[in-house]
Design brief:
The structure is a single chain. The protein folds into three domains: about 350 residues, Distorted Sandwich (Beta-galactosidase, Chain A, domain 5), CATH 2.70.98.60; about 250 residues, Aldolase class I (TIM Barrel), CATH 3.20.20.70; about 100 residues, Immunoglobulin-like (Sandwich). It is about 20% helix and about 25% strand. It contains 13 helices and 39 strands. The protein binds (2R,3S,4R,5S)-2-(hydroxymethyl)piperidine-3,4,5-triol.
Length: about 775
């Protein structure tokens, strides 16, 4: 049993395999946070220090007792307005002009299984969310095989009801527990119990309020073309917050955060993760108070948010997933990788190898017709690539990114020079699948849709809306808008054998004004827009269950766990430079698995950075650290490069079980180590690993560097080999010169002694090492 009630101490304990979370029903009905961390037993209420605090307020019911200091106690779901002056998780106003509330405990109960949230993504435990294997499509040249680990996870839900009868509000806190994974999810339901409207002005998904501890905040800021760059800084007194106001989770900040003990490292120490399953405006607030206590909360951004509830109505917040690790950041990442891979991503592609694709964007941009695309597919098929993706430019009157067409989702047959179905049939005839790009939430003013429905685009009456990439945003908070776009796109999907969709979003939201029936509730429109996007995606998944959808938002501008519920993979960045990608993948890996990160091999000089000196092997290994594909004209490759591509396709299939199902280890920090970047995948049974090392700096007379492996069995003996190192390409491999490197090592030697890194011949050269148990006992 994962959730226990200790009546004597009025404490509710949530136990996972390795962690304990304890809640206290405190004096006067305040819901206190007692403890979250490594597994403990007993009542943790002793951690709370009740004492008089100057300039703190005490509840009215406490009379002359001044020790229940409201801005000194840790709360489960702190609200504004009744004496806690730290950042609140909840705030509201009433028609009578009351701002804030005072939430007290009413009841709690434990329900078997994990709750779901209507219209919103949520962690699931039920295996039926993954389409059964028998129904799955088979992959070209690939026997239909799955790694699906039958879930033996036990899950339960704790519901705690709080209420403020004066304000007319009832708040239900939901806690979903996945015991074996050390994951606890949180979400909130707010109900209007008053006789008139109430307005929610802030309703975060969850809050963690620690009695003590010195913490660092790890978060993943960035920009378009350089997303998810890991940053770490101590939390100091005051509020530190980050989030998005752009309508999407954004390139600038990711809705995933880690609170790490200040001494925690990759391999040691306590750390807590918070991953929000939401793709719109969000906020994360961390606060260290005057007494050095830390509070951290996450949820929908309160700026621009105001949600009116009529009597009896309810509002559901999105969900945040907590995880705890007592052994450092690597373990925390492994937990999130499992959570995302097995309890957030759904559908047939959850457990099988995704098709290796070639995308037309960097291969041709808008300069294509059907013949050219078929030629790209022919070249790709010869090299073993499995799917052609037709990116932007195939529909309406679209000619360039500044031109029209968005909103008119019909095939431009004149441009293609043939019907889509004829082209797709030809591509299928090569043994390849076909996929297509869409950007459903957007509209060009030069489009039939805009001319017919100008009020479907966000714009404040009387004011010209801000442009973004010369396009406007459709009001997806309105069902009729989503219906129209869905029906248009479904007609294209039904017209040809389309097996993949890349769903893009190329601008941020502004000028929010809904001309639909929701216009009086403008503060809710940004949220309802996100619900409309989820509705669109859910309908796509339901109608086309075997179509793989890849999310995209000008790269990683909407790379979040909410989207991953609908789209198993997301294009990680528009920056396809493999050296830039080392930092991007490094940051992304803290919360998200390689199977979620869209990554492609592109040409050199790279189209975004202009960098030339990245050999095809390095570009391949970096792209293989994601979902793997190509985005260049494969017909222009030299014979050697073509050979390398064939080898990469074979290697990806050979090592896929490690890359997508093994455990990922960050062996260096590319933001700090300027000499080389290294990372590895280790099978869960520790019998096999793949390590990649990329030289970052050309050096004269370099020192000898050493790299320590992680995650191996110290007592096992391992054979190491360098894939592709045969006599024919020795000159392309880094060398160990005079260092004595054998082939067989103990796991302890590889992890604690390390391996000498060979001398690289070229900047950005790759050293890849395959490690496999040698089948002999360690001496
Ligand atoms: C932005 C995406 O990130 C690119 O990959 C490409 O699809 C373009 N949009 C197309 O307009």
């Amino acid at each position: 049993m994962a959730i226990l009630f200790d009546e004597k101490h009025s404490a509710i304990t949530i136990e996972t395999a390795n962690s304990t979370y304890q809640i206290g029903i405190g004096k006067y009905g305040f819901l206190l946070h007692l403890y979250y961390g490594k597994k403990v037993s007993g009542d943790m209420g002793y951690l709370i220090n009740y004492r008089t605090r100057a300039y703190s307020l005490n509840p009215f019911d406490s009379g002359t007792d001044r020790t229940f200091a409201l801005d000194n106690l840790p709360f489960e779901y702190p609200c504004y307005g009744s004496g806690d002056f730290r950042p609140a998780a909840f705030n509201m106003k009433t028609n009578a002009g009351v701002y804030g509330c005072d939430l007290r405990y009413v009841s709690h109960r434990v329900v078997p299984g994990k709750y779901a949230i209507p219209g919103l993504p949520a962690v699931y435990v039920d295996e039926s969310k993954a389409v059964p294997l028998e129904n799955k499509i088979s992959m070209k040249n690939e026997p239909l095989e799955s790694s699906a680990k039958t879930s033996v996870c036990k899950s339960e839900t704790l519901e705690i009801v709080l209420a403020d009868p004066v304000a007319g509000v009832e708040v239900t806190l939901l806690y979903g527990v996945i015991e074996s994974l050390d994951v606890i999810t949180r979400a909130t339901i707010v109900r209007n119990t008053a006789a008139s409207d109430i307005v929610i002005t802030k309703a975060l998904s969850g809050c963690l309020d620690f009695t003590h501890g010195d913490f660092d905040l790890l978060h993943f800021p960035g920009k378009q073309g350089m997303e998810h760059i890991q940053k770490r800084a101590p939390i100091i007194q005051g509020k530190q917050s980050f989030g998005s106001l752009r309508g999407a989770s954004s390139h600038q900040h990711n809705p995933f955060v880690i609170l790490a003990d200040s001494s925690a490292s990759e391999d040691t120490g306590s750390c807590y993760g918070m991953m929000l399953l939401y793709s719109g405006n969000f906020i994360c607030e961390a606060d260290r108070d005057q007494y050095c206590k830390t509070r951290i909360s996450m949820g929908i951004q309160d700026e621009m948010f105001e949600y009116t509830l009529k009597p009896g109505e309810a509002f559901h917040t999105p969900e945040v997933a907590y995880a705890y690790s007592h052994s450092g950041l690597a373990h925390l990442s492994h937990t999130y990788h499992k959570l995302v891979s097995h309890h957030i991503v759904r559908g047939p592609y959850r457990d099988i190898m995704r098709p290796i694709l070639v995308n037309s964007w960097e291969a041709a941009y808008f300069d294509f017709d059907g013949e050219k695309l078929i030629a790209i597919a022919q070249n790709a098929a010869k090299l073993g690539v499995e799917m052609l993706v037709l990116d932007d430019g195939w529909f309406g009157n679209r000619r360039a990114d500044a031109s029209g067409g968005l909103g008119d989702w019909y095939v431009n047959e004149e441009k293609l020079g043939m019907p889509l179905s004829a082209m797709v049939d030809e591509i299928n005839g090569l043994g390849m699948k076909f996929g297509i790009w869409i950007e459903p939430e957007m509209v060009s003013t030069d489009s039939g849709l805009y001319h017919a429905h100008p009020d479907w685009a966000f714009a404040v009456p009387g004011r010209g809306p801000a442009w973004g990439r010369n396009q406007l945003v459709l009001d997806f908070s309105r069902k009729e808008v989503v219906d129209n776009i869905f029906n248009q796109i479904a007609a294209v999907m039904d017209s040809a054998n389309i097996e993949y969709i890349k769903m893009d979003m190329n601008r941020s939201l502004a000028d929010i004004y809904s001309h639909g029936e929701t216009y009086q509730n403008a503060g809710a429109t940004m949220h309802k827009f996100v619900l409309g996007v989820y509705d669109f995606l859910e309908r796509m998944n339901t109608r086309y269950p075997h179509v793989l959808i890849e999310g995209c938002c000008g790269g990683g501008g909407r790379f979040d766990a909410g989207m991953l519920y609908y789209t198993p993979q997301i294009w990680c960045s528009d920056n396809t430079d493999a050296i830039s990608r080392l930092k991007i993948h490094h940051g992304t890996s803290f919360g998200y698995p390689a199977s979620a990160m869209g990554a492609h091999v592109t040409t050199v000089p790279n189209h975004q950075t202009g960098r030339s000196n990245i050999c095809i092997n390095t570009r391949g290994a970096v792209a293989m650290s994601g979902t793997f594909g190509y985005e260049l004209d494969l017909g222009k490759l030299t014979a050697d490069e073509q050979q390398a591509v064939k080898q990469q396709v074979a290697d990806y299939k050979k090592y896929w079980h490690l890359i997508h199902q093994g455990q990922y280890y960050r062996l260096t920090d590319p933001n700090k180590n300027s000499a080389f970047a290294a990372w590895a995948y280790v099978s869960e049974d520790k019998s096999e690993a793949l390590m990649n090392v990329v030289n970052l700096e050309a050096q004269c007379n370099p020192q000898t560097y050493y790299i320590a492996l992680k995650g191996l069995d110290p007592d096992a003996m391992y054979n190491i080999s360098v894939p592709g190192a045969d006599d024919s390409n020795q000159d392309k491999m880094p060398t160990h010169e005079t260092t004595q490197v054998s082939n067989i090592y103990s796991g302890s030697a590889l992890m604690y002694g390390g391996l000498p890194v060979p001398t690289f011949r070229d900047e950005h050269q790759l050293w890849q090492v395959h490690i496999k148990t040698a089948g002999i006992a360690a001496q």
